[in-house]
Design a protein that fits this description.
Blueprint (H helix, E strand, L loop, with lengths): L5 H22 L6 H24 L6 H6 L1 H15 L8 H15 L4 H14 L6 H4 L9 H8 L5 H10 L5 H7 L1 H23 L6 H31 L24 H4 L5 H10 L5 H17 L8 H4 L11
Helix pairs in contact: 1-15, 2-4, 4-5, 4-12, 8-12, 11-12, 14-15
Amino acid sequence: MAEPSTRERIKAINRAIVAEEKRLRARHRWLAHQDALGLAAFVGSLLAMTAIAGGYLAGALPWWAPVLLIGLPVSILHELEHDLIHNQYFKGRERIQALMFHVIWWSKLNASPWYRRVVHLRHHRRSGQPDDAEERMIGLGLRPGWFRVLIAIHPIFAYPVLASIKRADPKFHVMWGIRKSAPQFVTFALVLFLQPPLHLLDALAPGWLPAGLVHLLDALMVLWVAPNVIRQGCLALVSSYCHYYGDIPEGDVFYQNQILDHPLLWPMQLYCFNFGSTHIVHHFVVQQPFYLRQMVAEAAHAEMLRQGVRRNDFGVIARANRWGPRAAA
């Protein structure tokens, strides 16, 4: 008996995901209140961040607690930003969406949501191709090594890959995104690169620097930059390694992703809302909010595995995201 085509496999997976969504929506009527759920996740995340920051500033929490904890609610804000890019909340109410975008943008100290909208929507059209700017700027297709880790930390380290993306797509306007994100990028870079040496200088020569400046930089590092280094690094590594690149057919969703849900990945998954497990669901059925993708994941995975989707293919690391054995050029 002939193997089913990827088109037939994709249809079967799509049917399973949509059927599970319909079942869940019929069972849980509260899922119909999508705007309210998005707003609750938004406000709840901000309250959690405020409580953690307040505990640290009041002296009730050691420095490492907010470094490890703040990234968790920010990861939910990242999911909300992604859903807003797909117009999942407050459709037609641009002012509310813009307000949420601005708050999330400063919480993450990352690329402009409006720029992300451009590159993310293109990611869905060009996933795994040389002009898939969104994923390539977080390491897709690179060999494992220090640069792959560094580029995962923040887009400011992605400059070496921009020329390659530009060659693949001469119309790619990366500088627009960088200029748009300059205040956030500069804030991130100043704290990341100034706080450690100034803190060391203050330790070697106490009183030479204004105490207020040292305390401010410490607070910014602990509450803002360091949590986002951890969160963004986990997200970028999980995201880039759940995608395939370079030797996959254009526009064939079946080859674009794998399921990454190995228990060893849970520390990283915590900082990206189980992205490695659920992002593949998003590629098959785009218009679902982040919490619903998590709810349908078990049924979706069962059908994906029946159809031959890969799971926990850690060989993708050595293959630099290639589907087949060919090494990166």
